[in-house]
Design brief:
Number of strands of chain B: 4
Shape of chain A: globular
Distance between the termini of chain A: 19 Å
Largest interface: A-B, 24 and 20 residues
Helix content of chain B: over 70%
Largest sheet of chain B: 4 strands, antiparallel
Number of strands of chain A: 10
Strand content of chain B: 5-15%
Strand order of the largest sheet of chain A: 6-7-8-3-9-10
Order of helices and strands of chain A: EEEHEEHEHHHEHEHEE
Distance between the termini of chain B: 24 Å
Order of helices and strands of chain B: HHEHEHEHEHHHH
Radius of gyration of chain A: 17 Å
Structural class of chain B: alpha+beta
Strand content of chain A: 25-35%
Number of helices of chain A: 7
Largest sheet of chain A: 6 strands, mixed
Oligomer: heterodimer
Strand order of the largest sheet of chain B: 2-3-1-4
Shape of chain B: elongated
Chain lengths: 224, 298
Amino acid sequence: MIQLYNVSKSYQKENTALKDLSVQIGKGEFVYVTGASGAGKTTLLRLLYSAERPTRGQILIDGQNISRISRFKIPYLRRKIGVVFQDYKLLNSRTVYENVAFALEAQGKKRYEVSKKVYQALKSVGLEHRLQRTPLELSGGEQQRIAIARALVVDPLILLADEPSGNLDQDVALEIMELFRQANARGTTVLLATHDHSLYHRFPRRVLTLEQGCLVKDHQPETL
Amino acid sequence: MLDKSSYFIRRALRNMRQWPFLCTASVLTMAVALASVATFFLVVMNVQLMATKWSEDLQVVAYLEQQPGNAQLAQLLADIEKFPEVTTVKFVSNKEAMQRFRSRLGGESDLLDGVREDILPASLELSLLPEYRNRTGVEQVVRRLEAHVDSGDIHYGQDWLERFETFVAVLKIVSQALGGFLLLAALFIVSNTIRLTLYARRDELEIMALVGATLRFIKVPFLLEGALQGLLGGVLALVILSAVFNLFLSPVIQSFWLTPAGIELVFLDFNQQLLLVSAGVLLGIFGSLSSLRKLVQI
């Protein structure tokens, strides 16, 4: 599903965020990307949803080479990918319903289809009773669940999450992890960037460890 | 297609409802900018109208050495009427000239008692077609007159005509320069206001791009919003201008300065009003377009 071949990303001559990274992630896999701050986790995710282009190397998503993808094709690539951020990136002036519907409307879905899918997505994260609230009326955990519903409502092939539990306490973080596990169980490939060790100890999955932009460890737990 | 269009319109209206302060700021800025440009245009238009009115009074007067006989006069008038520049020609006899002088002196006309009735020269007063009411046109007529008339003096208010032409030339340059400057200033202010309102909503633009919206999908509602705000701004500018003109400017200026001169101020005609509102719509669209180019990055 995701293939990276000798991928490097530099912002300036002396500042290389990723160095010669090669990795393959299969369809339906759940992979943690871990490492200290500045290790290159966010850069890797940004490369995958084409917010950045690699300086060198090739990236294939679902068989499509996105290394030099034209800007007109990027929206269609992003429709295959759901992204969840640490700071949720919700529209605070819009209702919960509108925030989730936004992703479907952007894809030109019909109104009746939008309302049906939004309700289902919000139900799957347990927030179907908060449709008309605005994000600021909800807790951090609830806001992150809306962000996850927005990412999942389009049935993405890949779900990318950048420190999704970074602003949440442990109990809420576990609830959020459960949502990612459920999405993965339905067949979505999940790539989750975190530096929270407790998450992958509690939910052991393949772990890619980055250090100063280099992949230093690709660990597959024996229990799997 | 229809579904998408109605979605874009709904979203543009919803955005305006959700951001009332930003929307009001854009509409008011556009209204003020357009009203300023339109006020300037209105002033220039009325000054030009006044200048045209003044130029209607321009006459070429040929003072005759000797009062001609009836047959000679009829021939002379017929010849002059054939001049392509001339609309009317009027003969003023010595007596008529004296009567005019008397009436101008009013209460002091008795000063002329004892003065001979034929002391003032007879004259021919020529009115010209509008396109010849300039120095070149007048000089053309004077040359023709000199060939036909035994005239002691041909008078056409040379100084006045020179001053008038300088005034019209300066008016043209100033109005073009100032009008261009005002228009650029309006464009600059409006596009910056729109940029600020869009900047305040950059999260929305970023999230739209993240969830797979195409450039067209992101931009169209904002352009529609800009057009709607421009439309409202244009209509508001027209209402403000019309109110100020009809309730304040026109009555005050008319009563103090213009009534004695027989000049009436005019407001923008229907086409000009339509142009003002259309300019608002275009201003909204181009203001949004230039800001979106910089803010929307996929």
